[in-house]
Structures are given as C-alpha cells and as structure tokens.
Amino acid sequence: MSEIKYAKSKGLTDTPLTYCPGCAHGIIHKLVAESLVELGLLDKAIAIASVGCSVFSYQFFNCDAQQAPHGRACAEATGIKRVLPDNIVFTYQGDGDLASIGIAETIHAANRGENITVIFVNNAIYGMTGGQMAPTSLIGQKTTTSQDGRDFAHHGNPIHISEMFATIEGVAYLERVSVYDPKHVIQAKKAIKKAFQYQEEKRGFTMIEVISTCPVNWGMKPTDAMDWVKDKMLPVFPLGLFKDKGDQNA
Amino acid sequence: MAKVLMKGNEAIALAAIKGGVDAFYGYPITPQNEVPEYLSKHLIDAGKVFLQAESEVSAINMVYGAAGAGKRVMTSSSSPGIALKQEGISYIAAAELPCLIVSVMRGGPGLGGIQPSQADYYQATRGGGNGDYNLIVYAPESIQETIDTVKGAFDTADYYRNPVLVLVDGLIGQMMESVDFDRPTKKRDLKPKDWATTGTRNHPGRRNVANSLHLDPALLEQHNIHLQKKYKEIAENETQYEMINMENPDYVIVAYGTMARIARTAIEMLQEKGIKVGMIRPITIWPYPEKAFDAIPATTKGILCCELSMGQMLDDVLIANNGRHKVGFFGRAGGMVPDPEEIVDAIVNFTQRVVK
C-alpha cells in the first residue's frame, strides 16, 4: 500500500490558482496555509485579500475571508480583530498595495500594535495591472512606467519597508525572507509560522516580508527570475530578522 | 428615563449605544467631534470597541471589517470626511454589509466651512462612491427624531444587509434639545448573521467571504440585479415623510432637516398673511417620497423647494413633480442659515425656477 508523502495543504481550497506559471505566490500561499493548519488555527482564521495579483486569495485560503479595497487591508484587519480578538486575522498584500497606496494603514496598524499578521509579498513591480513601477522597484529596473529604468532623481529610491517598520514600537516580530531556493523556502515557512504563533499568543503586530518574483512582467523565465531575486533584489533588500520582541518576553 | 437636555452630537452617540453598537471607528472633523468624544469614554467603559483611526479612509475600512465580522458598527464624520469614506461605503454596500454612518454636514465644496449646510444631498443620495448602489438615508429634523432614527438604524441595516446613513447638519449636531431616549423603535424580524466572517469553526463546512469582486460580467450584472431588487423592497417599505397643512394649500414647501424647521415657522407667518402653505417633509431622502407629491392638489399654485444648498434635492422634487406644478427654489449656502422671513418672501414672490 502506498503512502502519501506530499499533498496539497488542507489550508488551501480546490480552486485553481490564478497566478502566472512560475510565480512564487503559489509557494507563499502554501507556506501560509501549512502554517495555519500545523498550528491548528485555520478554522479561526480570517484572511484579508488585497488588490493586485493576490486579489483572489479569498478564494484560495480555506478559511473565512474578506476582500479589501486597494491598500486598506490593515484597516479592515484592524476592524475585525478589535471585535474578534480571539480569531487569527492576517492580510496578504503585494508591494503596490502595502508600500504605496496602503502605507498609512499599514504603519498605523503596526504602531497600534494591532495583533494581526501581515504577509507582505515584495516582487518590485505591479503584476496585476501589467508591470508598472512599484515603490520597491530597483534603481535601473525597466517597467512599463519607467521604460528607461527607475531613476533616483525622478522616482526616488526603492522603499525599505522592513527597515522602516523595525523602528515601530508596536511591531512584535518582523523578518524578511525569500523563496528563491528550497533552503529559503524552509526559512520562510519558519518565519510565517512564528508570526502566526505570536499572534495566537497576542504579542502584537507581526509582518513577514517575502522577496518574490514576477517572471512575466520582469520578462524572464521562472528560473532566471529566482536568480534575479538572489543577485539583484537581495543586495537591496537584505534578508534577516529585523525585530523579535517575543524573545525578550519569553 | 425622563427627558434630558442634550447636545445633538452627544445624543447621536448615546442613541447608538442604546441601539446596540458594538464598535465605533472614526476620525476627528468639525462639526461632529462630540460623537467620537462621547463614545471614546462611554463605549470603552461599556467594554465595547472605540478606535480613532489614522484617517477617514482607514475608519470606513475598519467599519467594513467589523461589519463583515457580524458586529454592529458605526462611523461618523462630516462632509469632506464623508467624501473620503465613499470608496469604502461603495465596497460595504456592494458586499451587502450592515453598518451605520452618521454625516453631520458642513458647508462645501472643498474644505468649505464648518457651519451648518445641506450641500451633501447629492453625496448622500447619489453615491460618491462608484457603481449602482444606494444607502438608506434618513434626514431627521430634530434631536429627538435623530435619536429615534439612530436607535433603530442597526436593526434596519441588519434587516436589509445595507448601510444606513443618518444625515444631519451642523445645527442639529451642535444645538441642545430636551429629549427622550426610551421611545420605542420598529421591531424587525432579524435573522442570525450566518454570513459573518467569524472563522469556519463557528460555521463548519462553509467558508464565509465578504467580497465585492465579480470579474465575470454576467455574474456582476446578476449581483446588480439582486441589489436593485433589494433597493426596490426598501423603497416600498421604508420611505418616510411628513405631510403638514396639506388641505388645499396655495403653495407647498418641500424641505428636510433644519430647513424644514425654519419652514414650519414661515408657514405660520404666511398663514397670518392669509396665504395657505403646506409642506412635504421627506424623512428618508433615499428612498425619496415621490408618492407624497400625488397629494398636491391641481389648484396649488406652486412648489417651493427650500434647502441649505444651491439646489440639490431640487432634482428629486422635479422628478417627483413630473411637470405637474410650477417649481421654485429657495436656498442659502455654506452656513448662511436663513430667517423664516426669507422663506416667507420667497413664497410671496414665488417664481418658477427656470430649468436650463
């Protein structure tokens, strides 16, 4: 009799993912879903889908969900968590949603120490709308709205969300991870799981920034996109632990 | 509870508590600040949720979240602040979530002023947010009527799964009147909120989702048809208005809120002059009491729409009148609250407003 060694997480529905082939959203969805299942939190979780490629994530996570207006995920999460403090509330947001239009909502949720978890997927581009420049696009990066490459004098520098949020008192746990190879996928899973664990323990605001890919809008093969993360993005967005208040309180 | 003397904004806050509010999310703006100030103390003391958001935009999305979670939730603001909330209001209406929004109008456009105004009639009844949606909009004329409306608003919102907007102006917000908080509200048969996002452990086998996205055009149209059906039901059952002095009037005034109060005095003054004037006072401005206009006799010489704006409800008056009578307009803008004599003059010198 054969034994199932690997299966789709029960934390995901059977709805086919809408992401482009080779996009890392699928990996990150899996990590979030597995973490919630392993911690026994799935049936009290409420996911907040944002606007962008992950707009349909309310169909993918196998839990209750709300779909938020562009950038407002952390406000919506706050509204829920304040009235349902014992549920698990998390947002799943891209860099346009979180770091551009939704930066105020995100900063203030962090500053209030809202006991929510933010999964921040940074792939340095607007994917859903067709490859426009994001606040996290790299200097020199060509996009449909920076066709000669992002230029500091004109567009400013890529914004460093984790570095900024590390200064905020209300943040309990903040780590930047990536999923460009199996080793980093495993590390990312640990971080995501820890963030949910902290939320369950009511320690405050937790955010995991995941450096991810957009092969289609970057104009690359998926494997080259993974290399681009490692070679181009990580020097600008170095991985690591930015804050862990939990250890001090342990 | 005996009658108490209370300021309009504080009365709104206490009425919300009496109506069972679980959570308030808002942002400061004049002239409605006493609403959040009162609730910041009394709601938290009662073990409920009060949170001052970082912006109106954030506040309305907190409302969206809590409404989706099945709680009785509200926000309050004033004109430019309501403008900022329109995106969220459209989403809430689209996702069919119940909530209460209180708008204490001030003069506009832009930053305008902080004095009483009714220049947000369009904003309240014509959206401001995108798409075909309607709020149930009450426009009470006194603090007592505001209390009664706010107390019942959560039941109404829950019953129809639709946002309710209570629209007053800065005058009602800032003045004091003797009021009673114990008047009964309409009893409604409310179903459990089995659609709320409370975690699947509370409703095994079913995922609850609050959503306004329907990318398939056929499904989106279906959703819109469903919403329109609900709005029709609301229009049939919830339209409210008052008819005053409507037996063979020479003229009929149409006014709501503060302007209706001023018109009441003007009507008495006109009676002394031997001019018989009636009034249609819409209490809901969406749905609009179009049927009330059928009661205006053919002999009536004209309808005067009176507003603290340059003419917004006038559109609904023209639609409801449907060419039957001459329609005139009297309006003051941006906090210039008129004396009754000005309305008296407008009736005595009634002229049809030329519609371009």
Which descriptors apply to this entry?
heterodimer, A: 250 residues, alpha/beta, Rossmann fold, seven-stranded mixed sheet, 11 helices, 7 strands, 39% helix, B: 356 residues, 2 domains, five-stranded mixed sheet, 38% helix, 19% strand
Quaternary organisation of the protein chains: heterodimer
N- and C-termini, Cα separation of chain B: 53 Å
Specify which chain pair forms the largest interface. A-B, 36 and 39 residues
Structurally, the number of domains of chain B stands at 2
What is the SS-derived class of chain A?
alpha/beta
The helix/strand series of chain A, from N terminus to C terminus, equals HEHEHEHHEHHEHEHHEH
Number of beta strands of chain A: 7
Structural class of chain B: alpha/beta
What is the class of the largest domain in chain B in the CATH system?
A: Alpha Beta
Radius of gyration of chain A: 17 Å
User: Any idea what the CATH superfamily of chain A is called?
Assistant: Thiamin diphosphate (ThDP)-binding fold, Pyr/PP domains
Counting DSSP H or I runs of 4 or more residues, the number of helices of chain B is 11
Account of the protein in words:
Helix content of chain A is 39%, strand content 17%. Chain A has helices at residues 25-38, 57-60, 73-83, 95-101, 103-111, 152-155, 161-165, 182-200, 215-218, 222-236, 245-249, and strands spanning 45-49, 64-67, 88-94, 117-122, 171-178, 205-211, 240-244. Chain A has one domain (25-249): Thiamin diphosphate (ThDP)-binding fold, Pyr/PP domains (Rossmann fold, 3-Layer(aba) Sandwich). Chain A is an alpha/beta fold and 250 residues long. Chain A is globular, with a radius of gyration of 17 Å. Chain B folds into two domains: 4-238, Rossmann fold (3-Layer(aba) Sandwich); 242-348, Rossmann fold (3-Layer(aba) Sandwich). Chain B has eleven helices and 15 strands. Chain B is globular and about 70 Å long. Chain B starts with a strand and ends in an 8-residue tail after the last helix. The mean pLDDT of chain B is 97. Classes of the chains: A alpha/beta (250), B alpha/beta (356). Chains A and B meet through strand 1, strand 2, helix 3 and helix 5 of A and helix 3, helix 4 and strand 9 of B. Strand 2 of chain A pairs parallel with strand 9 (209-210) of chain B.
